[in-house]
C-alpha cells in the first residue's frame, strides 16, 4: 500500500503543525525577513510541541517517531512559504550526532536538540571549497586533550543561532587521498577562538541567519570528535541521501504552493475583460506546470518509501534533487510571468517565493554535481 501522509495519525500531526505555523510563524515571518533572524523562542516553542527531531528516541527526549513526520514538517513549511530551517537542524545536522555520537555525547546534546534549547548548524562550505569537500583547508591538529581548529567556513545557515556547529575539518592535512584526512568536530557556543561574522546579505531566504564562521586557534576538546578520526568524509557521504531528499521535499512543497495560488490568481484577475486563465496560452502553460508538479510529487513519494525502507537510492535521490528543484524554479518563473507586473511587487507571495526558490538547486550540491553523481551511478 502506498504511503499516505494525509491520513490517520499523519493527518492529526499535519493539522497540528499547520496550526503552529499559522499561530507562531506566519504572523511574524515578514518581520523576521527584515531582521534576518528567526528568534530563538520560536525554536523552543517548536520543541515544546514536539516539532523538532521527532524521530529521536524517547531515551533522549524525542518521540521515537518515523522520518515521515519530518517530511510533513518540511512540506508544510514550504507550502506556507515560511522557510524556518527546522529541517536543517532536525533532519540534516542532528542525525550525525544520533548516528555517530558516543552515548555520552548523545546524552549531552540530543535532549537540547529536541527541546530547541540547542540549535545546530553544519559547517562544510569554505570560501575556496564548495561542492569539493575533499579540498577543504580548515585544519584541526591534535594538541594534548584538545584539537586546535583553524579555518573559515561560509554560507553557514543557522550560524548565528547555533549553539552547536558540526565542523568538517582536516585532522590529517597530509592524508593521501585527501578525503581520508577529514574528521567531524562539534564546536560549542562560547569555545575560545570561535567567532561569527556578520549575517550575509542574500537574495532570498532572508529570515535565515546565514554567516561566515571563523576558527582562530580554537581549542576544541578531543571528546567533541564525532565518530572516528579520518572518517568524516564517509559520514558526510552517508548522510547526503537524506539531506538531498529533504531539499527535494522543500522544492516540491514550494512548487505546489506557487502553482496553487497562481491558478487562483489567474481565475480572478481580469485582463482585456476576461480572466487571465481564459486565454488558451495561459491555460496551456498552467496545464504544463500542473503536469510537472504532479510528476515531481509521484517521483518524490516513491523515493520517500525507499528511504523509509532503508534502501540506498543515491542515484534516484540525486535525480530528484536536481529535477524537482529545477522544476520549482521553472514554476516560479512562469507563475511570476502570469502575475504580470503584480508579480514584481512584494505585496504578492510570488515575489518572495521567486527569490527563495533560486537557492534550491545550489545548496546541498548543485544541479551539475547531481548530474555528475548520476553519471557515475549509471557507470559513466
From TrEMBL:
GO terms for biological process: branched-chain amino acid catabolic process. Residues 9-116 form the Acyl-CoA dehydrogenase/oxidase N-terminal domain. Residues 230-378 form the Acyl-CoA dehydrogenase/oxidase C-terminal domain. Residues 121-218 form the Acyl-CoA oxidase/dehydrogenase middle domain. Pathway: Amino-acid degradation; L-valine degradation. Its cofactor is FAD. It comes from the Bacteria. Keywords: Branched-chain amino acid catabolism, FAD, Flavoprotein, Oxidoreductase. Gene3D superfamilies: Acyl-CoA dehydrogenase/oxidase, N-terminal domain, Butyryl-CoA Dehydrogenase, subunit A, domain 2, Butyryl-CoA Dehydrogenase, subunit A, domain 3. Signal peptide: none annotated. Belongs to the acyl-CoA dehydrogenase family. This is Acyl-CoA dehydrogenase. It comes from Desulfotomaculum copahuensis.
